[in-house]
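Loading example: each entry is read as two labelled lines plus one structure line.
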Amino acid sequence: MSLKGRSAIVTGAAQGLGRAFAAALARAGANVLACDVQREVLGVAAGLKGAGKAVGLVADVSKEAGVLRIVDTARTSFGRIDTLVNNAGVWRRTPVTDSLEKALDDWDFVMDTNLRGVLLLSRACVPHIVAAGGGDIVHISTYYVLPAKGPGTNSPETDLYNASKWALNGFTQAWARVLEPKKVRVNALCMGATDTAMLRGLWDGSPPAELARTWMKPAQIAQHLIDLLEEGPSGRTGENIGAWVGHPVELGPRKPAHRSVTG
Amino acid sequence: MAFLEGKVALVTGAAVGIGNAIARALHAEGARLSLCDVRDEVMDLAKELGALGTKANVSQPADVKRVVDATLRKLGGIDVLVNNAGVWAGSLPTDDLEKTKRDYDYLVGVNLKGSFLFGRAVIPHLIARGGGDIINVCTDHVQTCGSPFELTHDDAPACPFKDIAPRPTGGGPGMDLYDASKWGQLGLTFAWAQALAPHHIRVNALCMGATDSYMLRGFHNHNPAPEEVARWMKASDIARLMLDLMRDGRTGDYIGAAVGHPIVLPARRANPYVISGAH
């Protein structure tokens, strides 16, 4: 299915994966609202090339006011919302031996964006995606939530980051089921090491070149997103879609659904 | 024999249901107990078991600190933490923002933040004792047997749920925030298991299905049909499973228990989410 004329929101679009998602969606002909807490997102939006409109917005998904502004801006700019890419995310070392005071600060910092931000923005978008006749919610998760293909998974130094990403499983799974009759698909991209500002930040911005060379590129993951969206309404839903360093970045076969007795 | 003689165990949500059964099982093994709950009945149970009882809300940092401080003061240390306190409320992707904010604070606050706060408050004291156990009481909703999340055992022929239809998994209507909070507990479990292995502290998750408990009875307006109750697992069986898990000594595992299947500790296996020595 062509993405031409579709309207997409990408959070955390000032850099890294989010910027690549915005660029790929614009190239595919979609209208793109690129949001970020960083002002650089305005320049990113201004530079997007494609047949659709591109709008930049400085907004913080960890604040309800930011969430509401994102939805209002998308509606007034495009008249509809078809696709939400929940990409905005933060990372912080949270060693288990830290003080309880730091732990509390870490909880708010990590969870308000990675979990509560995803929740509130998605809740605010769902009525509009449903009104548009269906569409997509895509979470940007991590390969931690899939069986490891190598070492380095579920870092012991980042319990809250890990928990925030595992928690997204609950949203992906439940929303996929509940929103299936409304033709809203919900999936998560769960990639391994990708060359982004977040990952480079682990080495203060200067990772060893031979290591950085092995990483996947944001453009690869962005193409992964486009492939997923182009599946259209009959495509997969409720899946965690993995991408690993050293393996082909491809959607792979759909996984069989199973029934639930819950609820 | 009583294998927890001389040990101190802290159980959250101990007033009723699974927490109550866990407290009794730990007591029977000789542990000295610190029990907390938002419910008054926790004081009755504490009295009955000669335990320290505290009324506390696990989602409130000041309450967590108060329980841990009292435990250290009265019982001299902590060897075992059971993050059992949990709540359920229905939440849907079509809910409005006001309800959603309340649901987030309630469900994520108690189930995930409560486990996080108690874990973090207790960990330094477990380290000081030279070892111990953390058990996060989770749910079978995270035992997805291959699809869609490939968590576990159950790509393998040993999947505890492979013969059960429909499958006892999460993702049902009303479950999004509850399930998210419980998946989040697994994230904590896997990170803590790795971080604390050098300190001889084991961290595991107990992921049982339908068990006769206050929460499950609540799903049935506290008036479940007798034939329904007869089907459920017993809280005392889950408590026994937890003791078997502690005796076994493994860490970083997520132990399932399913209605209609024997409630036994599965064999140890490599956890694909915790690769030892990977860091």
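Residues 259-263 of chain A have pLDDT under 50 and may be disordered.
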